[in-house]
Design goal:
The protein is an alpha/beta fold and 755 residues long. It has 36 helices and 9 strands. The longest helix has 22 residues.
């Protein structure tokens, strides 16, 4: 009888139930409505008396927990369901020692998938969540819960079970048909897909009416699989998909019916069937209206519109028909990618309706660029050959136009993909000109991935004549090369201790940080460090005033798209800041706080503004390596002497101390005819704690620099080098040898100069 009590009730209800059992052992307490059990805290006395109901009955409860433990034990739970309920009761009264014993028994049963499914269905998943969370039942509690969930899910969705349920859909027994459909419906879209696949088997033609009825009854859950089936090369499957979509009211269903009815690539029988169903439902627009509808939806999806609430977060299932296997397949894609996939599908429909329409073609190609880049992500390049094969007669001029439109529409992935295409098919005409070309303008948009893609394309095209904007390319090359592959948060506040406190708070989140106490210092730091990715600006900053600083940050091509958090010192300043920052992209206003929880929340919100992608450490390394490779070529090729790097010497000098770039940095500095470069090379050579191989490489570069432009060192600097050599007597012979070598180079040049 005790085992009948099981419900996920509160502990006090269980104790009351036990008390009632004592008071009236012949009366079943399990049918009693919870609403009739009144707990009145005011009537509890120190002896543990509780008044129940309105009849003033009083029951003294003594050792009710032990009574419940004994009663459950006397019921002798042995089946999986009985044991699970016993565990739940023991958890409710916090007798984890007893619960652990029942858990051991449950775990020893070694339930198969079907038994796990029945257990989970009978007692509900909440109990197993409790078992998994209960600290005193670990690790067995978590292991058992996970095992039950996995086994139940695997069995419920197994092909064998689904096949049996589908067979039962054609049963003569109405009850069996209803049960089978209910269970398939719980399986979800996989069950829908398997029903659709039966139409490919002509041997089951007698079952088609039953399958068709079930398919229509699934409703909206059938949309995804039906969309995939509508592209099948299996005629029967495609026909049923069109019929099924006609029963639905969703926008996606209408879009597919329009595609089937209007596309010039749709075969006549399917086109006529789709047209018939559109007309029958009164949803058949004129061709011009259909194109307008599709264009509007394409543009909406490119801007990030979601198809439904289901796709607002997480992933979305995308179904397609595999003609080889004769089955529907599903892949999970991020919701943002799914939206761009919808745009690509609809734009393809537009293009197939009228491929001669320029706008249809533009939207088709633009959506392809956006989707393909979203699909592969920021760190990989799209398959350009595949795109060129599918898009007939495309050339660099058309891609250049698409790059301009993508930037205008703020479609950063599409713009990035366009740069990747131009890298492969572009020529000097995409870079050289008296006015800045789109590839150069892409650098100024401010997105790091787009900047790199444009830079990489220009580096690959490698024009040999000066062009408008080449100074930006030179600056970006030196800027990217100086990365140290970690992301930084810059914090500005007039009080250094506040700036440092905020900066320190970013450390546990994987950010490095820097602090500044004036607007000018802040601006100089963030525009010279390629690893800065998030900006925190306080309204206390001056020189210039913080509002002007925000405008400068939003105008500069290196910081234009970075998230900015504006910290307001009090409520009044917060209101003012919200007013004047309204409409500024990627800028959030917060009240200033040193509370770690508040700072964490604010940082979360700012990180969400890093759209469409953040820049990972691997990305930063990849960008830097490519930039260093280009810098080495640009500084050593006489035909590229229109690139000027004098203003970027500090960044080039820093490359010496990056082990992977030391060799390239030495070659780059050897071409720079400046005293700063020569001093830096001598300083590197003279550091005994650096690898001797690297110092020898830099000594070679120093010799090349002196041969190229002479010695640019002062007498004092030369004397310092002699002192370094004399002080190296106690150091390894290799160190003294390399120091002596640079002195020989200096002296040889001085002797030649005296002649």
């Amino acid at each position: 009888m005790i085992m009948q009590l099981f419900s996920r009730s509160l502990r006090f209800k269980i104790l009351i139930a036990a008390a009632l059992l004592i008071a009236s052992p012949t009366t079943s307490i399990f049918a009693q409505d919870d609403a009739t059990v009144i707990r009145d805290e005011a009537t509890r006395d120190r002896q543990g008396i509780i008044r129940l109901g309105t009849d003033e009955r009083v029951v003294r409860i003594e050792n009710t927990e032990e009574l419940l433990v004994r009663s459950v034990a006397q019921s002798n739970p042995t089946t999986a369901i009985e044991l699970a309920k016993a565990i739940g009761l023991m958890i409710d009264i916090e007798r984890f020692d007893v619960a652990s014993e029942y858990l051991d028994s449950l775990a020893s049963l070694e339930l198969d998938g079907e038994a796990s499914y029945e257990l989970n269905r009978s007692v509900g998943p909440d109990l197993f969540y409790e078992i998994a969370r209960a600290k005193d039942l670990q690790p067995l509690g978590r292991e058992t819960a996970v095992k039950v969930f996995k086994a139940a899910s695997s069995w419920a969705n197994s092909d064998e079970r689904v096949a049996v349920l589908i067979d039962q859909l054609a049963s003569d027994d109405e009850y069996a048909r209803g049960e089978a459909f209910a269970k398939l419906n719980r399986v979800g879209k996989k069950g829908v897909a398997r029903v659709i696949e039966t139409f490919a088997d002509q041997n089951r033609e007698d079952d088609f009416p039953a399958m068709r009825g079930a398919l229509y009854a699934f409703g909206e859950s059938a949309v995804g699989p039906l969309l995939g089936a509508a592209e099948s090369n299996e005629p029967a499957v495609r026909i049923e998909a069109i019929r099924g979509l006609a029963k639905l009211e969703s926008n996606q269903a209408v879009d597919m019916l329009l595609r089937q009815s209007l596309s010039l690539q749709t075969q006549s029988p399917f086109r006529e069937l789709a047209s018939f169903h559109l007309s029958k439902s009164g949803r058949a627009p004129a061709r011009s209206d259909a194109e307008s509808r599709l264009r509007s939806r394409v543009e909406g999806f490119l801007e990030g519109r979601r198809e439904s609430a289901e796709s607002l977060v997480g992933t979305v299932d995308v179904w397609s028909w595999n003609d080889d296997s004769g089955k529907l397949e599903v892949v999970e894609v991020e919701s943002s990618v799914a939206a761009r996939l919808r745009a690509a599908e609809l734009a393809r429909t537009l293009f197939e309706i009228d491929p001669t329409n320029t706008r249809n073609r533009e939207l088709h190609l633009l959506s392809q660029l956006e989707f393909r880049k979203r699909r592969v992500g920021a760190s990989q390049q799209i398959n350009v050959d595949e795109l060129l094969e599918q898009a007939e007669n495309i050339d660099a001029v058309e891609i250049e136009r698409l790059l301009v439109e993508a930037i205008d529409l703020d479609l950063i992935p599409a713009a990035t993909a366009a740069c990747e295409v131009l890298k492969q098919i572009g020529s000097d005409s995409q870079v050289v000109g008296a006015e800045r070309r789109p590839l150069v303008n892409a650098i100024l948009v401010g997105d790091r991935h787009l900047q790199f893609a444009a830079f990489d394309a220009i580096a690959e095209i490698n024009p040999k004549t000066a062009y408008a904007g080449c100074s930006y390319v030179a600056e970006l090359g030196a800027f990217l090369a100086s990365s140290r592959f970690n992301r930084k948060c810059a914090v500005g506040h007039i009080r250094n201790e506040v700036a440092q406190a905020w900066a320190t708070s970013t450390g546990p989140r994987g950010w490095s940080s820097m602090a500044a106490t004036s607007s000018q210092e802040f601006f100089e730091k963030v525009t010279s460090d390629p690893d800065v990715a998030m900006l925190i600006v306080s309204d206390t900053l001056r020189r210039p005033e913080h509002r002007e600083l925000v405008q400068q940050l939003r105008s500069h091509w290196k910081t234009r798209r970075m998230p900015i958090g504006l910290l307001a010192r009090d409520a009044n300043h917060l209101i003012r800041s919200v007013r004047y920052t309204e409409g500024i992209d990627r800028l959030l206003t917060f009240p200033i706080s040193l509370d770690s929880g508040a700072i964490a929340s604010q940082l979360d919100q700012l990180e969400d503004q890093q759209s469409p992608w953040n820049v990972s450490s691997d990305d930063r390394y990849r960008h830097a390596a490519r930039a260093v490779q280009w810098l080495e070529g640009a500084t050593t090729d006489p035909e590229l002497d229109f690139y000027h790097f004098g203003a970027h010497q500090k960044q080039l000098l820093d490359l010496l101390y990056h082990p992977e770039f030391t060799s390239s940095a030495a070659k780059i500095l050897a071409t720079q005819p400046t005293a700063v470069a020569q001093r830096a090379m001598l300083g590197f050579v003279s550091q005994g704690d650096l690898p001797i191989e690297a110092r020898e490489l830099v000594a070679d570069a120093f010799e090349s620099a002196v041969k190229r432009g002479g010695t640019m060192l002062t007498t004092r600097e030369i004397q310092l080098q002699y002192e370094r050599y004399n002080a190296s007597e106690s150091q390894p012979a290799e160190t003294q040898k390399v120091l002596g070598r640079v002195l020989d180079v200096i002296e040889a040049r001085r002797k030649r100069s005296r002649r």
